[in-house]
Amino acid sequence: MTELIRSATGCLRESGWTCEPPMPAQKDLPSALQTAPETVIRWVSSFSLLSNSDETVWFLSRHDYSTSAEGAFAWNECERLSTEAAATDEEASAVSRFWKRHLPILLSVRSGYEYLAVRDDGAVVHGTEPEFEEAAVVFSHFEDLLRHISVRPVQLDHVVDRLLFDATGIPDTMPSH
Question: Which residues share a beta bridge with 58?
Fold first, then answer.
């Protein structure tokens, strides 16, 4: 697993991402990570900062999940926004149920709010505003995401490629006639 993590972060660095070494590990695991798969904990513990060059897309680090972490965006920002937007108690409950099963691992503000999260069964999902909870599975396992990053495909035809490797962040559009 360590080699896969090194390979993925190395590929992101080669693509212009900033990667800073991890901070000294806190003794206690942040509560948000208590039920996370070991591979996810190892990933988020392998850096203190991992972001694209303009800092509009970033992976969350172990420190980001700490309640004392400071920053413009909390690790659970999408959940907070959805909870604030919920019009009824039923909607708020649905938001809470969704996020109890999903751990955000990447946030993007490049062209609207987007995220990648690991679901409690290990699948990686992608969601966007305004309906964050209408997420789609992009990888069956977290390790598949790391492998995908490591091979950095030539054709950027996957939603994750657009998030990680496309400098513009603007989807291709049909030429006008």
Answer: 51, 107
